Amino acid sequence: MKREYENLSSSSAQLLGRYEELRETCDKLTKTNQDLKSQLTVLQLNQPNQPPIVRPARAAAPPTPAPYLTRRETLPIQPSGILEMDNYEQYKQDNHWWYSIPIHTHHQGYKFCLGVVANGHGTGRSTHLSAFVFFMSGDYDDYLTWPFRGSISIQLLDHNDKISSTYLCIYDQQVGTDYCQRVLAGERAKLGWGAPKFISHATLKRPILAGGRLRFKISGGEARV
């Protein structure tokens, strides 16, 4: 018992000594902290008054909108380019639709494509080539006026770039909005506006049809808003 008591007394003495060391260290840290605060206060008093620094908030940039137009203004539609359709005879034999790559009426304008039925559609079936304009879902639809009001020209060129046939798709008040309304579901509109009898099969011979390829020039008039 006596030895156990001596051991406990020794351990208590060691703990007390360790406690005193920690307390002394804590006092030194407290004094150092107070000294640093005093130095900071002196530095702030010696500095001239400065306005607070305000950092601007960052926001995601919205897409560039189309030019703003009033109701009385018109937006000119620039020529949209040349479209080429290959394998005319195969499309005619299979009675399949051909759709062009997407194009636009103008910069940041209405997106659409050309749909062609080589063997004819509707009243032009088996006798004519049919051509239609299908509007598509575009990146700038939120900034455009719907339904589209204006005109889109479809021209068939020969290998000398001479016009062989022309059809002007006019989107006025008499045209149903289903043909020129904004596309909200799917890649393109379900209905296209154009010419079932764009050009007869009898006329589609050389020099118009060279190497089984047809060349269409797409251009426009004015989009009235």
Task: Write up this protein.
- The chain has 2 helices and 11 strands, in the order H-E-E-H-E-E-E-E-E-E-E-E-E.
- Residues 40-79 have low confidence and may be disordered.
- The chain starts with a helix and ends with a strand.
- Strands 3, 4, 5, 6 and 9 form a 5-stranded antiparallel sheet that branches. A 4-stranded antiparallel sheet has the order 2-10-7-8, with no helix packed on it.
- It folds into 2 domains: 1-45; 74-224, Apoptosis, Tumor Necrosis Factor Receptor Associated Protein 2, Chain A (Sandwich).
- The chain is α+β, with helices and mostly antiparallel strands.
Which residues sit in consecutive blocks of at least 5 with pLDDT less than 50? 40-79
Q: What is the strand content?
A: 25-35%
In sequence order, what are the helices and strands, one letter per element? Answer: HEEHEEEEEEEEE
Please give the count of helices: 2
Q: What is the count of distinct domains?
A: 2
Which structural class best describes the helix and strand composition? alpha+beta
Distance between the termini: 106 Å
Form type:
rod-shaped
The main sheet comes to: 5 strands, antiparallel
Mean pLDDT: 77
Name of the CATH architecture of the largest domain: Sandwich
CATH superfamily of the largest domain: Apoptosis, Tumor Necrosis Factor Receptor Associated Protein 2, Chain A
Q: What would the CATH topology of the largest domain be?
A: Apoptosis, Tumor Necrosis Factor Receptor Associated Protein 2, Chain A
Tags for this model:
rod-shaped; 225 residues; single chain; four-stranded antiparallel beta sheet
